[in-house]
């Protein structure tokens, strides 16, 4: 099993557990070091006091021992035990063969044990420390040689009970345990509080994501605080993502609605000429003896509707290429000959209108020559459709700063303000009574061509006074 599996699944509790582990290890190490240092210092104090006491006793023995070395049966003059007895220290003098000569009372009345290892070390002139247990009492014993004229003549042992030190260390352990518990409790509470505050935006993010997942409502947002930390920035980024998703969803819905309308309108537009063609063709088949005038009229209607279908299919193919991401050619194009060619081509349709070029400048753009001509033809065709006899259509080409401006103005029937925002939509017609003259796709294609050239197209119109279409394209540098 992975060690991470031991951690709780909640990120908050993982942070708390990890922090407690780190703090716990640090506290244990720090408390252990303090405890060890205190124990060493206490033991050092005990040992120092034993050495000092041994030196005092040794000095007193040297004052009284004047003749020879100490021997088990030799009568020597040494200080009485009362002279170096104390309440916390036990003093014992022994011969080199372990016979006790003088001793003060131990807490339980026993002598201080003297083993062979200690005797051997002392005989060599060395001093030793050892911890021994006498009865129920633990003692720290300092054994040192008694010298007379640089010769070891006995063993001096000074002992002290460790009961007081054990009590002190026990209190220190209790204090450490209580302090450790309080510190860990405070650490857990503080970490839990900080984690709660820090992860609040994350919890809000999760709740918001769940609400969005259940309801599909992309208008939901995560509440964020003004002071953003990393989690707050994540929540803010999530909100930005939701805004973009909401916008994309809205655009997708609008696109799907537009596609449904497009399919329905295309079906309707194709059905109308097909009905006319089939009706006239059926009439020609059923009435073989039709008069030449009626036959001619039927054939003309078939031709007109077939031509209308051709134009509609051509426009549909153009828009299909646009939807598929088709890119137009990019090459230097002089605008003047393109506009003049389009005007000449449309003159035969505007015999009863005043179609003229008022102003034309020699300006060059980067783009597709054929597409630019199609753009001008669409604008001229639109102007011809919505002007009356003797109305005027003016075409202008000029350079404005770093832009080429193509302007087509007419004095026709105009477009009401309610229709202006929609005239570049597919199959949209401002005047439905004139719907039979066009496909309703021309201005949509014009807008696509302009966008392919990184330009803009706008319209200004007033009912009864006419319309002005203005195209701005980046001029070639």
UniProtKB/TrEMBL annotation:
What UniProt keywords apply to this chain's record, in alphabetical order?
Kinase, Membrane, Phosphoprotein, Transferase, Transmembrane, Transmembrane helix, Two-component regulatory system
Q: Which reaction does it catalyse?
A: ATP + protein L-histidine = ADP + protein N-phospho-L-histidine
Q: Which domain of life is it from?
A: Bacteria
Tell me which EC number(s) this protein carries. Answer: 2.7.13.3
Q: Which residues form the Histidine kinase domain?
A: 265-477
User: Membrane: is it a keyword of this entry?
Assistant: yes
Which intervals hold domain HAMP? 196-250
Cellular localisation: Membrane
Q: What is its main location?
A: membrane
Q: What molecular function terms (GO) are annotated for this protein?
A: phosphorelay sensor kinase activity
Q: Which residues cross the membrane?
A: 12-35, 174-195
Tell me what this protein is called.
histidine kinase
Q: What organism is the protein native to?
A: Thermobaculum terrenum (strain ATCC BAA-798 / CCMEE 7001 / YNP1)
Question: Which classification does the entry list for the species?
Answer: Bacteria, Bacillati, Chloroflexota, Chloroflexia, Candidatus Thermobaculales
